[in-house]
Design a protein that fits this description.
Length: 181
């Protein structure tokens, strides 16, 4: 074989390698560009992201007052508990509870109770947010659908509900506001 033929083969091999690599890179970029809209569509939509957290100003809530806010489409009950309500919640023996949790496990500060306001039996919204509504035997919430009674810490005390009112993830931003979610 002459030197010209060998040079031509080496040159052809490097050109062929370049073409393979270029075609592969072009194909990878094209595939990425084609898949990007599909992958991006799996991200949560803007309205879902907006509902992922809720900030609540507590400065206007008085002792003993309860407010309801929405978080992820669910009612969240916020109760500024009186010293009497705190004492009742803290002094409850765990042996009396169907779903035993201490009050300290359910609150970040004793004055504020934050619970998702959905009965754990069949998903009804319990009464007790307004002073004129029935708050059940323990002064918390009462679900009239099937008779579940919750105490001042949102713990189930009587009726068919199997669990306490759930606590959403929340944190105090300062003394007068919280962030839920």
């Amino acid at each position: 074989m002459s030197d010209d033929t060998q040079d031509h083969d080496d040159h052809s091999g490097s050109r062929r390698d370049f073409l393979y690599l270029s075609a592969g890179a072009f194909g990878a970029v094209g595939l990425g560009a084609a898949l990007w809209p599909f992958i991006s569509s799996m991200n949560p939509s803007a309205d879902v992201l907006a509902l992922s957290t809720t900030e609540v100003d507590l400065s206007q809530v008085e002792d003993g007052q309860r407010i309801t806010v929405k978080w992820q489409g669910k009612p969240v009950f916020i109760d500024r508990r009186t010293p009497t309500a705190i004492e009742e919640a803290e002094s409850t023996p765990l042996a009396e509870l169907r779903d035993p949790e201490t009050d300290e496990e359910r609150v970040l500060t004793p004055e504020w109770l934050v619970v998702i306001g959905i009965c754990t039996h069949l998903g009804c919204v319990p009464l007790g947010q307004k002073a004129s509504e029935d708050r059940g035997e323990w002064g918390g919430w009462f679900c009239p659908c099937h008779g579940s009674h919750y105490d001042t810490s949102g713990r189930i005390r009587k009726g068919p509900a199997p669990l306490n009112l759930p606590i959403p993830p929340y944190a105090f931003l300062n003394d007068t506001s919280i962030k839920i979610g």
